């Protein structure tokens, strides 16, 4: 192994960090060690196929890391001062800085993009209620007890309320004013964890809603379809609507 290859081994990884391709770094270091070099010289001192050297030479010249010198019929390449590597890195930083605001904007939009999951069937409805009740947050619910009890049984109901107790949550239901709704909120299921209220008599519900933390669940127990939307802004908006409604009653 000659001295040029030893130099390459020592510095190749660091040079690549500037943004050069591995073959570009090999060629640059070979020319730097030789002082000046022809294509033949480079082929003998860098592990790069002669047929591909021309492509990398052009790239390095465009980046300002090589100079081309012609003597008679021979073409030599000379490596620029290694400080030019810093210039290459600075140029890359400038390009990234120029588009950084747009990249950050894209990241912000992507980060806050709502996560939406769809559910259907009885098991899907159970999954929604099970997930939404496993929380330490206050749960704000607006629902019809008639539709709820047409779908769920006592075992389901017991499980949902045990979830709330086990996770340290608190439930603030707004229940449609029907005989079954009044019976539902007067039962002992809310003791210690809930403060249910009846909705106004003329307030009928086709879809139930639950809000907990950053999640909002919209459920049609009539059609057995539902969705959980996970987004802090949407959750805050819906939660504030329910809070306002509770204050007005």
Tell me what you see in this structure.
The protein is α+β, with helices and mostly antiparallel strands. It has 2 domains: 3-83, Orthogonal Bundle (Arc Repressor Mutant, subunit A); 111-248, Endonuclease, Chain A. It is built from 10 helices and 10 strands. It has helices at 3-16, 22-34, 39-45, 50-62, 84-111, 121-133, 145-151, 154-167, 179-186, 232-248; strands spanning 36-37, 66-71, 74-79, 115-120, 138-143, 170-175, 197-198, 208-212, 215-220, 225-230. A 7-stranded mixed β-sheet has the order 4-10-9-8-5-6-7, with helices on both faces. It has a 3-stranded antiparallel β-sheet with strand order 1-3-2. Helix 6 packs parallel to helix 8 (154-167). The longest helix is centred in the middle third of the chain and has 28 residues, at 84-111. It is rod-shaped. The model has no long low-confidence stretch (mean pLDDT 85).
Give me the secondary-structure topology.
Blueprint: H1 3-16, H2 22-34, E1 36-37, H3 39-45, H4 50-62, E2 66-71, E3 74-79, H5 84-111, E4 115-120, H6 121-133, E5 138-143, H7 145-151, H8 154-167, E6 170-175, H9 179-186, E7 197-198, E8 208-212, E9 215-220, E10 225-230, H10 232-248
Parallel strand pairs: 5-6, 6-7
Antiparallel strand pairs: 1-3, 2-3, 4-10, 5-8, 8-9, 9-10
Helix pairs in contact: 1-2, 2-4, 6-8
């Amino acid at each position: 192994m000659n001295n040029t290859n030893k130099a390459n081994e020592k510095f190749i990884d660091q040079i690549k960090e500037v943004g050069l391709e591995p073959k570009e770094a090999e060629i640059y270091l070979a020319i730097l060690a030789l002082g000046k070099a022809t294509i033949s010289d480079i082929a003998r001192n860098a592990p790069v196929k002669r047929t591909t050297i021309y492509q990398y030479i052009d790239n390095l010249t465009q980046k300002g890391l090589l100079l081309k010198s012609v003597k008679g019929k021979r073409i030599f390449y000379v490596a620029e001062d290694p400080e030019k590597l810093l210039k290459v890195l600075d140029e890359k930083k400038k390009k990234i800085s120029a588009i950084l605001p747009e990249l950050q904007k894209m990241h912000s939009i992507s980060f806050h993009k709502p996560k939406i999951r769809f559910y259907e069937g009885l098991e899907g409805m159970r999954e929604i209620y099970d997930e939404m009740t496993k929380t330490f947050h206050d749960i704000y619910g607006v629902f019809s007890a008639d539709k709820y009890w047409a779908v769920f049984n006592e075992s389901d109901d017991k499980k949902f309320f045990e979830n709330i107790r086990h996770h340290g949550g608190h439930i603030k239901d707004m229940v449609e004013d029907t005989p079954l709704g009044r019976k539902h909120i007067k039962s002992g299921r809310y003791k210690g964890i809930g403060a249910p209220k009846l909705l106004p008599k003329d307030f009928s519900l086709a879809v139930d809603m639950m809000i907990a933390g950053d999640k909002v669940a919209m459920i049609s127990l009539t059609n057995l379809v539902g969705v959980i939307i996970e987004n802090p802004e949407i959750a805050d908006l819906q939660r504030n609507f329910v809070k306002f409604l509770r204050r007005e009653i």
